[in-house]
Design goal:
Blueprint: H1 2-14, H2 16-34, E1 41-43, E2 55-60, H3 65-74, E3 80-81, H4 102-110, E4 111-115, H5 122-136
Antiparallel strand pairs: 1-2, 2-4, 3-4
């Protein structure tokens, strides 16, 4: 099985540059659509020489996460939570000392992401950008 996985991985690596360029293009489309809404949400500039973006993260500056996610779903935009929550809420980690993990709690309760997969058509990404802008505004 690992030889089969290696075969798929090797094939995918041959397309890495093209796929990475598509993902970055999608990221920039969403970034350009939402960066003017900084009073309503935090969005993060495209990574430059520091990694590969596989999703577009958004952090709301309000307690509207459920409302925004429901409005997006009603308009056909799929999103996911940014993380499973602060680790200190998991029973196995409750006794480990920590500083309150304020940022983890904030991110977990106000952040989500939309996909930027390289196979998405540009027109779909532009449509998602418009819907995001409309819903978050």
């Amino acid at each position: 099985m690992s030889e089969l996985n290696a075969c798929f991985g090797r094939f995918q690596m041959q397309q890495w540059d093209r796929d990475e360029q598509r993902r970055m293009s999608h990221y920039e489309t969403l970034w350009n659509a939402l960066r003017g809404l900084l009073s309503r949400c935090d969005v993060y500039p495209p990574p430059v020489d520091s990694g590969s973006a596989f999703v577009f993260p958004i952090t709301l500056n309000s307690d509207r996460l459920d409302e925004v996610q429901q409005a997006l779903a009603a308009r056909g935009v799929e999103c996911r939570s940014l993380m499973g929550g602060a680790i200190n809420r998991h029973p196995a980690y409750r006794s480990i000392p920590h500083d309150g993990l304020v940022n983890c709690h904030r991110m977990g309760s106000s952040s989500f992401f939309v996909g930027i997969h390289q196979s998405l058509p540009d027109e779909d990404v532009r449509a998602v950008a418009e819907i995001l802008r409309d819903v978050i505004s």
